[in-house]
Specification:
Number of strands of chain A: 12
CATH class of chain B: Alpha Beta
Mean pLDDT of chain A: 79
CATH class of the largest domain in chain A: Mainly Beta
Number of domains of chain A: 2
Helix content of chain A: 10-25%
Distance between the termini of chain B: 29 Å
Oligomer: heterodimer
Low-confidence stretches of chain B: none
Strand order of the largest sheet of chain B: 1-2-4-6-7
Strand content of chain A: over 45%
Low-confidence stretches of chain A: 1-10
Distance between the termini of chain A: 50 Å
CATH architecture of the largest domain in chain A: Roll
Largest sheet of chain A: 10 strands, antiparallel
Structural class of chain B: alpha/beta
Chain lengths: 193, 114
């Protein structure tokens, strides 16, 4: 399976991601695990990897239940970026929000989710760490209200802002939010009545 | 993508003459700027005319920075308040040098201008 990743058939072998934790933002390259299915190579996506970090075990030398950033930057709330080792092992349960810095608009990631989730609905989510995220939740606000079956929830056509500067939004085709850090949510778009 | 270039010593200074850097613009930005990096240690992107940058634009900035030979740095200048807010939100302002204008960026890079 590692060799399939090296070949990179049918999708990206790695993506540049931002993993937002309560204290730091971690930016780096993340290798996506792959699996051979019926003669083709299936690339697991970031959402699947965060919801099931044991998939990382598909690569040799990877600790279980962590995802590995390579060429990573650790960006604290204050001060300069901190140097980290060649590989940074990250516990997904500590991640508030994640997104890919995809130059193609993450179209593949959006297609992936659209195939697996139903009832898209505009939602606004605030996190316990002061992020304001609005976008389309694939599953609907009712699913947000219920007990999450997965820790990480997909939001497409997302706009991410700090509650301190809510008018300056980063547009992200595909954001992933940890349900454990969702403080409040509502249907609709930010700023709409 | 409309860009203008100026070599200042070992720094390539690029003025982005478009209002948006999004998924439609990043390929042009990367290819045109990337082709002009040879012989330069640092890169300055002047975003004074840019009104909007999304995550794909930020990806292009990261990609261009990686194409600089170490310890080359990327500086962004002329950023509007919303773009500065986004750089602060993503904390990429800790990775890129963010300056008011190209003169300040050149000074921050400690660049040789000869």
């Amino acid at each position: 399976m590692t060799s399939a990743a090296a070949r990179g058939d049918g999708g990206p072998a790695s993506v540049v991601v931002s993993l937002v934790t309560p204290e730091s933002v971690l930016v780096g390259s993340l290798r996506l695990p792959t699996m051979e299915l019926a003669g083709s190579t299936y690339h697991f996506r970031l959402l699947e990897l965060l919801n099931n970090p044991r998939l990382s075990g598909l690569h040799e030398g990877q600790y279980r239940d962590s995802v590995v950033l390579e060429e990573a930057f650790l960006l604290p709330e204050r001060g300069s970026r901190l140097p980290v080792g060649r590989e940074l092992h990250v516990r997904p349960r500590q991640i508030v929000c994640a997104y890919e810095f995809a130059e193609d608009g993450s179209a593949g990631a959006v297609r992936f989710s659209a195939q697996r989730f139903r009832r898209p609905e505009a939602v606004v989510v605030t996190t316990t760490t002061g992020l304001l995220i609005d976008g389309v939740f694939l599953g609907g606000a009712a699913a947000l209200a219920g007990a999450a079956q997965k820790a990480f929830l997909p939001i497409v056509e997302a706009r991410i802002a700090s509650t301190a500067t809510p008018d300056s939004k980063l547009q992200v085709p595909f954001a992933i939010v940890n349900d454990a850090f969702v403080a409040a949510f509502s249907s609709g778009r930010a700023g709409s009545p | 993508m409309k860009l203008s270039f100026q070599s200042v010593g070992n720094v390539q200074v690029v003025v982005v003459e478009e209002p948006r850097i999004d998924a439609h613009a990043t390929a042009g930005l990367k290819s045109e700027v990337g082709a002009r990096l040879s012989g330069h240690a640092h890169l300055i992107l002047d975003l004074g005319r840019v009104e909007f940058v999304d995550s794909s634009g930020l990806a292009a900035f990261l990609s261009l920075m990686k194409r600089l030979p170490p310890p080359g740095q990327l500086a962004l200048c002329g950023c509007s308040a919303p773009i500065r807010d986004i750089l602060a939100l993503t904390r990429l302002d800790r990775i890129f040098n963010v300056a008011d204008d190209s003169a300040q960026a050149l000074a921050a890079l400690g660049a040789s201008t000869r």
